[in-house]
Structure formats: C-alpha cells, structure tokens
Amino acid sequence: MSEIIEILTLCGFAFFAGLIDAVVGGGGLIQLPAMLIILPQTAIASILGTSKFVSMAGTAIAVNQYAKQQKIDWQTTIPAMVTAFVFSFLGARITSLLNPSLMRPVILVLLIAVAIYTFSKKDFGLLQSLKVSKSRQYFYSIAIGSTIGFYDGFFGPGTGSFLIFAFTSVFGYSFLTASAAAKVINFATNLAAVIYFGFSKHILYYLGIPMAICNIFGAFIGANLAISKGSQFVRNLFLIIVSSLILKLGYDIFIIKYGK
Fold first, then answer.
1. Measured distance CA(260)–CA(242) in Å, rounded
2. 197-241: per-residue pLDDT in tens?
3. Do the Cβ atoms of 85 and 188 come closer than 8 Å?
4. Residue 148 neighbours by CB distance under 10 Å
5. Cβ count within 10 A of residue 64
6. Helix 175-199 / helix 205-229 crossing angle, nearest 10 deg
7. In sequence order, what are the residues at sequence separation of 6 or more whose Cβ sits closer than 8 angstroms to the Cβ of residue 37?
8. d(Cα 208, Cα 64) in Å, to the nearest integer?
9. Torsions phi, psi of 241, nearest 5?
C-alpha cells in the first residue's frame, strides 16, 4: 500500500472514530485497530502516541461544541479532569513495568456488568436526577477521575464509555450530560498521554496531523448529532459500543490467546 493511500485510508477511519467518540466514546475501537493493521511494521508505542494525538484534537472540538450548546457541571467535572490528567500520565508510565493485557479479563467482566445494568434499567440515563449532595460531589469526582484516568493511561479501551456510565450511575446525569462531562475528562487524559508520548518521541506527525484534521470534522458532526438527538440516541449508541467492546475483548482473550 502506497504512503498516500495509507494516509487517506487512516484519515477515513479517523473521521468515523471522531464522530463515534464525540457521542459516546469508543473511537479507539475504530482508529487503533485500523492503524495496527495498516501500519504493521510501525512500533506499537508510535501507533499509540499518534492515536492519542489524533484523539486529543477531536476531543478538544467535541468539548467546545458541548460547552456552547450543553450545560456542563464544571464543579463536578474539573476535579475529575485534573486528577484524570495526573493519573493518566502515571498509568502511561506503569505500562513500561506491567503488561496491560493482564487487565483484559477484569475489564471484560466490568463491561458485561455495565451492559446488563443498562439494558435492564430502561429509563437509566434518559432523565437527569441528581443523586449526590454538593458536599460529596467533589470526593466522587476525584475518585472517578483518578480511577478512570489511570485506566486510560495504562490500558485505554472503553474509557469514554466507562466515564459516561460513572457520571450517569453515580451522579444521576442524563446520558447527554454525562457524555459532555466525559469529553472534558477524556481530553485531559489524552493530553497527558500526548505529553508523555511526545517527550519520548513516539508521535508520527506526518500521519497524526492529517488524521487529526479528519478526526476534528468527525467530532464536530458527532457532538452536534448527540446534542440534537438527545439522551435516547446516546444511550442506544452507548449500548452498541459497550457490546462491541465486549466482543472485541472476548475475541482477544478466548480466540487469539487460547485458540492457538
């Protein structure tokens, strides 16, 4: 495959990844596997670094669109964003000491639990019903930010979906409000990872810049689509993405690892 065709193909995947990610997270399901397949000779660290660079650009646009059209509870979101940034950087550092694939069975179980809970609660996340008092919001926000931030830096798949579920189940946000908050925090975790990979020279800018432009266009469309369609649309897409993550991790664990 020529270099120009590779870049154009990856740009197409980056567009759709940005669109999906802006609505409900999970853009990595599209973008990262595409890069691994199309760039088989490229170092994994460079693929991860470039993917994070691309995702950060799209997430920044999604945050801007949500902030202009959808109310974001900054009192809850900012503490989670700050701690997520710090712990995402720590998680990225830990990947050099531990094998992230060890997390797959644990994450698979958690995703199945999330899917079952969301499927069974038909009205879950459709209406906003705040559950946590103002005095406890700060504590829960820090706990969510540090836990999921570390997970994103260390392993990553499904971070946006876990954030949406956390804000919906813990704080009682609607899916749309939770998606807006998740984008803010996801931007912080992406930024931390980009700083880490940037300093270690693992970002391929000749690929990252055109892919980032396409990811931005996708994120712009996705954020506006979520805002116009509302929480029911976000909930349905959330369940599709979580189900896709379950199938992907199940395939990685039981087919690739044990099927040989």
1. 26
2. 898 898 999 999 999 999 999 999 999 999 998 888 888 888 888
3. yes
4. 27
5. 15
6. 170
7. none
8. 21
9. -65, -45
pLDDT on residue 126: 67
Q: Any residues with CB less than 8 A from the CB of 111 and at least 6 apart, and which?
A: 158, 161, 242, 245, 246, 249
For residue 20, is pLDDT > 60? yes
By CB atoms closer than 10 A (0-12, 13-18, 19+), residue 103 is: middle
Which pair of structure tokens corresponds to residue 80?
């989670």
Report d(CA 238, CA 217) in Å as an integer: 21
Which DSSP string corresponds to 172-237?
Answer: ---HHHHHHHHHHHHHHHHHHHHHHHHHTT---HHHHHHHHHHHHHHHHHHHHHHHHH-HHHHHHH
DSSP state letter for 65: H
The encoded tokens of residue 243 equal: 């189900």
- Of 145, 129, 139, 150, residue with least CA distance to 182: 145
Task: Give the integer Cα–Cα distance in Å for 124 and 117.
Answer: 9
Q: Lowest mean pLDDT of 75-79, 81-85, 116-120, name the range.
A: 116-120
Q: CB–CB of 55/27 below 8 Å? A: yes
pTM higher than 0.85? no
CA 193 to chain centroid = 12
Distance of CA 242 to the CA centre of its chain: 12
Contacts of 95 (CB under 8 A, 6+ apart): 153, 154
Rounded Cα distance between 59 and 92, Å, is: 19
Rg (C-alpha) for the chain, rounded Å, is 17
Q: What is the 3-state secondary structure (H, E, C) of 69-109?
A: HCCCCHHHHHHHHHHHHHHHHHHHHHCCCCCHHHHHHHHHH
